[in-house]
Amino acid sequence: MTDPQTAAIAADTAIGAVAEQLRQAGESRTPCAPIASLLPAGDLDAAYRVQEIGTLRALAEGRALVGRKIGLTSKAVQTQLGVDQPDYGMLFDDMAVPDGWEIPAGRLIQPKVEAEIAFVMGRDLDSERITLAEVIGAVDYAVPAIEVVDSRIADWKIGIVDTIADNASSGLYVLGNTPCLLEGLDLRLAGMAMTCRGDLVSVGVGAACLGHPLNAVWWLARTMARAGRPLQAGDTVLSGALGPMVAVKPGESYEAQVMGLGSVRATFGA
Length: 270
Prior knowledge:
By secondary structure, the protein is of the alpha+beta class. Helix content is 29%, strand content 28%. It has helices at residues 4-28, 44-60, 75-81, 132-138, 160-165, 213-227; strands at 65-71, 87-92, 96-97, 102-103, 112-121, 139-149, 172-175, 191-196, 199-205, 236-241, 246-247, 253-258, 262-268.
């Protein structure tokens, strides 16, 4: 029988090895095999420990933490990936792309796009017992967003352990340029339509995001406070997909329109 100390050392070794595998896949732009089998089965805590290693490495390299992303809030995306709960990942300063700027071919491995509502926080949220009312009061403004998700796992063959360890399959993100105050917005019923060359490629509504995008922010605020990385004033929160994600075609531009918030574009080099 393995004693607890030996088991803990083995687990830490496995976590470090997975983090290194994902790092190499990202830097080489060569996806690796699924990593869930290298960690204890279904162990989300272990997956987040892998993610934290990547976060600490990024901070040590001088990248600035500027927000968080919530993943797997849409039932459509959960169905695509075979999971039943949200997750979170880190947003760094070099992940932001201005609206309409071209994303060079080869910058990502196997990108997909999904339309979201992003919130910028006006004050810190550092309590695990934060209320939804306090979350609403802490939001400075909302904008439409396109998250360009990516995976270091080959062919997107991922489960929730894989995606959590891989920083929630993060890539880049694009924010709309017109900030909107929450007053007067009904984000639960806000319809979303994403087009490419005028063709509709994804549709959705705010209610697809945990019933309401602000519900997702509330979940994230409490979760991040518990994890020791609370949301702070100025942070950007990508609240989760409003509809199915779409595989990117090189040379194309994708435009997402969200009712009440305007539009945002993600453009990809050929």
